[in-house]
Amino acid sequence: MKASEIRSTFLSFFEGKGHTVVSSSPVIPGDDPTLLFTNAGMNQFKDVFLGFDKRPYMRAATAQKCIRAGGKHNDLENVGYTARHHTFFEMLGNFSFGDYFKRDALAFAWELLTEVYKLPKERLWATVYAEDDEAYDIWKDVIGLPAERIVRIGDNKGARYASDNFWMMGDTGPCGPCSEIFYDHGPDVAGGPPGSPEQDGDRYIEIWNNVFMQFNRQLDDKGAYQMHPLPKPSVDTGMGLERLTAVLQHVHSNYEIDLFVTLLAAAKKAVDESGAKDCDAASPSLKVIADHIRACAFTVADGVIPGNEGRGYVLRRITRRAIRHGYKLGARQPFFHRLVVDLAAEMGDAYPELRREKQRVMDVLKQEEERFFQTIATGMEILERALAELGAPGATDAAGVRAAEQATDAIGSSAKVRTLSGELAFQLHDTYGFPLDLTADVCRERGVAVDTDAFEAAMKRQREQARAAGKFKVAQGLDYTGGDTSFHGYDKLVHDAATVVALYVDGS
Ligand code: ATP
Ligand code: MG
Ligand code: MG
Ligand code: MG
């Protein structure tokens, strides 16, 4: 079954169960400034669940465009390195607005998975919230799932949002326990069952989350949170289309499904034709590029343009991350925008905005690419000079490769390695827009470490100066806007620096 058939099968199954099929909302939430991007199918129904909005239906089903590359759900750094995380993905969901509840929701899910998609029952696992005996009993007694494959998951002590199996929209408001369905990809994939310490592998994959909105969490007059049962409990579910497709196409990674095979081939071709000649087809960098073109194209199609704050900033970061990975493979001129053609051919039937906006999306991305390649060229010149001064071996030198290996081994030990100054790395970032992760990549290939402590110190200094300047302006009564936005930017970049150090050390 192709991904497109899997999507339409889901929607028609729920239509047959009395659900109204509703179109995906844009990736930019219409009236929710608290949310950077749409990150779940329920977003467009938030007010319906809260009782502020009424719809002519009580059951709905959607295939929703989602982006998780910022904010509370941020999977950006995982992408390319796990088999199951994307920045952009489609969430298939069915919703009950005060209509059916746990029993029907779980029975629908089981029927669809085992009778329509025909997944082998013995590969399916379910988790329930530790105290949710009702859901546990439905799995065991109504559906007949063996107790060994039903896992109770309790509160995550100390976490702001209680646990993986208790969903809350925020500190107050509707909330309730979840039941997640996992698929076991089998013993040739590493990872442990849900709830076990080894769960964080790709063997047991969470495919479907069922959220039972059962309580309204409110503060009482003594300042303590109380759970009040909702008069009309609701259901909100979400299943990742790409993960389900991997299962149904008998592959262990989302990147091996039909859609991604096409995008990966297109990415390789575009990168090769832009200077790489014959890059490694198995490189995680190609996965990053194939993933990121979806997030970037859909975001631009829905109206965002790259910029320095908010959504535009996230878009710019994702675009540049893709370009950086292309550069790493050998691309020396714009390649990324070309993938919009392949993406529109693959997904344009389901999402006509991709066809309609194709040319504009390509133009926006191409312009960003041209700029960033220019940035890279300027930054590389400065970096090359610094590397030469350090006596680092040349880029294509065999000695360089050996030195790089030695340097990687030496990081974390007390052995001396050539080190690029953090001040220079900061100047590259701050003055030339040349990102730290690119500096670190290039240096690593040349056997040179980067003084990231000094980089972070410089970053912190600059942030304090910016803050002081902001306060000064406020104190003078001048109009001061935009300060917050730049602070967020720096926070993100500082976080990036930490990630780079981690990547640098473990070599991934
Ligand atoms: P995970 O624990 O794997 O990160 P999650 O618990 O954060 O997933 P939910 O918020 O429950 O995910 O979202 C519902 C479903 O959407 C998941 O069961 C999964 O199938 C899919 N999904 C979530 N995040 C991603 C992602 N980054 N890429 C692809 N699919 C995703
Ligand atoms: Mg997650
Ligand atoms: Mg999860
Ligand atoms: Mg989940």
UniProtKB/TrEMBL annotation:
Residues covered by the Alanyl-transfer RNA synthetases family profile domain: 1-508
UniProt domain comment: Consists of three domains; the N-terminal catalytic domain, the editing domain and the C-terminal C-Ala domain. The editing domain removes incorrectly charged amino acids, while the C-Ala domain, along with tRNA(Ala), serves as a bridge to cooperatively bring together the editing and aminoacylation centers thus stimulating deacylation of misacylated tRNAs.
Naturally occurring in which organism (per UniProt): Piscinibacter koreensis
UniProt keyword list: Aminoacyl-tRNA synthetase, ATP-binding, Cytoplasm, Ligase, Metal-binding, Nucleotide-binding, Protein biosynthesis, RNA-binding, tRNA-binding, Zinc
Cofactor detail note: Binds 1 zinc ion per subunit.
GO cellular component labels: cytosol
Protein name according to UniProt: Alanine--tRNA ligase
GO biological process, one term: negative regulation of DNA-templated transcription
Top EC category: ligase
Function: Catalyzes the attachment of alanine to tRNA(Ala) in a two-step reaction: alanine is first activated by ATP to form Ala-AMP and then transferred to the acceptor end of tRNA(Ala). Also edits incorrectly charged Ser-tRNA(Ala) and Gly-tRNA(Ala) via its editing domain.
Residues of the full protein shown: 1 to 508 of 905
Cellular localization per UniProt: Cytoplasm
UniProt key word Secreted: no
Family of this protein: Belongs to the class-II aminoacyl-tRNA synthetase family.
Cofactor: Zn(2+)
Gene Ontology molecular function, alphabetical: alanine-tRNA ligase activity; aminoacyl-tRNA deacylase activity; ATP binding; tRNA binding; zinc ion binding
EC number(s) recorded for this UniProt protein: 6.1.1.7
Catalytic activity: tRNA(Ala) + L-alanine + ATP = L-alanyl-tRNA(Ala) + AMP + diphosphate
Keyword Zinc: yes
